Fold this protein.
Amino acid sequence: MPANLIIPFRSQPPKSGLFSLKDAYATMTKITFIQPDGESQTVEAENGLTVMEAAKLNDIAGIEAECGGACACATCHVYVDEAWRDKTGKAADMEEDMLDFAFDVREGSRLCCQIKITDALDGLVVRVPAKQF
């Protein structure tokens, strides 16, 4: 095994409380965040987290997440790239209500605290708005 090989480790124990070798290593999904100036940052995040949690864990600029993911603010607003909108799904009513408070809402606007990371989202691209409210 190469010395520089990094294997992602689960951040949370399995619900059973018992670790197996299979459980110990998380499945990671790549997400690209594009800033308003065009700079991009691709991160790897553990499946089961939200896109907002991945952004905060990786210090993505512009994702404030003041409510901590409770869908009670609009400070984790992103624009989901058109190619990914079907896979991320549509916003639920509560999320739509919170988007009324977001800056520059467009087609593809989502609160990233409401997007759960799965294998199907590997390669997801989201754009960060110029500002959050």
The CA atoms of residues 16 and 66 lie 32 Å apart. Residues 30-127 form a domain with the Ubiquitin-like (UB roll) fold (CATH 3.10.20.30).
